[in-house]
Amino acid sequence: MELDGRIPSDNPFKNSYVYTYGHRNPQGLAWDEHGTMFSTEHGQSAHDEINLIKPGANYGWPIIEGNARQQGMETPIFQTGNTTWAPSGIQYKDGKLYIATLRGEKLRIFDLKEKSSTFVRGDFGRIRDVYIEGNNLYFISNNLDGRGTPAADDDQLWKIDIKEIK
Question: Domain total for the chain?
Answer without folding.
Answer: 1
